[in-house]
Amino acid sequence: MEQQGTAIRVSGLRKSYQKLEVLKGVDFEVARGSIYALLGSNGAGKTTIVRILSTLLKPDDGEASVNGHDVATDPARVRESISLTGQFAAVDEILTGRENLIMIGRLRRVDNPGRTADQLLQRFGLTDAARRRVATYSGGMRRRLDIAMSLIGDPAVIFLDEPTTGLDPEARLEVWHIIQKLAHSGTTILLTTQYLDEAEKLADRIAILHDGTIIVSGTLTELRNLLPPAKVEYIEQQPTLEEIFLTIVGQR
Questions:
Q1: With contact defined as beta carbons under 8 Å apart, do 33 and 40 qualify?
Q2: Global pTM value
């Protein structure tokens, strides 16, 4: 039986592709309503874990459950509980933003998909672009629309697989803000990323995936405590590149 307050549980997960062992026994738990970041370089196995948890791929060994449902024995119930946003926005460029949302609403059999679409367009700041073809959208707008589509049907768990890949700095910050708002509303988010600043900014807990296993996990404070105490030095504080970028852009 799933522990109360646990949205995702993974135990002894293994997966190989021919002779390449990608996952070598992965274990972790994600609390409901939290942001959990899987941090690792390309090829570490992050996407493989997401594909297993979203029932797109079967593990070779181990157990995994999402929202209290086993991914192997109850995949239909798992799919009812989740939404998946991949590394690249899965939007139809021929349709308008509103039409994309209505299409997903109909597929998920929500009541009044048009009203749902309008609410999400407003929530994600896309109302003015609602009737434009998605082919005209910027990368950040496409990603916002993609995440908006993932919210249709009110999934309990959302998988975000490297959601800011290929975005410019301003668009990345927009997506970060959206992710934080989702977690504050009670949605559980499993985030995969190779960007250290992204995990540091967003995650309640961080797991470092390396060579097919999670080598360490915890809060940012707990991970910092693994290192020797920092030396105290008095230096002139220089603005970060992010601060410089936002200041210059904001002046124009």
A1: no
A2: 0.82
